[in-house]
Amino acid sequence: MRCWASSAYSSSERVRCSVKAGQLRQRVTIQQKPTVTRDGFGAEAPGWSTLVTLWAKVETLTGREFVEQARAGAELTHKVTVRYYAMIAPTMRVAWGSRILEIAGVLHDDHQREMTLLCNEAV
């Protein structure tokens, strides 16, 4: 079933949406695996292609700092909630403004209304 906003449906036909439209305030772009393109000099340049642009709710869950092979780094974990879109997979990434979030997992709800993307951001 779908989330109905119209009053043309009886209350028994309407289904509550778990995420209200007002909570989806950030604009994100889901990008697919790199595609090989040619730059101005004819050399191969990997690039990401846009799958879809969606409204989302982006929440920062955790952050950590680490030292790896004598280099300092930081990583943030995000939860991105979007309306259901069947083609999103963990091999993709989320562009959120100037930030890039790598999708680590995709969680679907039982009614295909929304999905939660668990993402990592290297800082």
Quick rundown:
The chain has 123 residues and is mainly β. The protein has a single domain, classed as Beta Barrel (Thrombin, subunit H). The protein is built from no helices and six strands.
What this model shows, in words?
- This protein is mainly β.
- The protein has one domain (21-122): Beta Barrel (Thrombin, subunit H).
- The chain is built from no helices and 6 strands.
- It has strands at residues 26-38, 44-68, 71-83, 93-96, 99-108, 114-122.
- It has a 6-stranded antiparallel β-barrel with strand order 1-2-3-6-5-4.
- Strand 2 and strand 3 form a beta hairpin.
Shape: globular
Quickly give the structural class. Answer: mainly beta
**CATH superfamily membership:** Bacteriophage SPP1 head-tail adaptor protein
Number of strands: 6
| Total separate domains | 1
Instruction: Specify the CATH architecture.
Output: Beta Barrel
Distance between the termini: 40 Å
Order of helices and strands: EEEEEE
Proportion of helical residues: under 10%
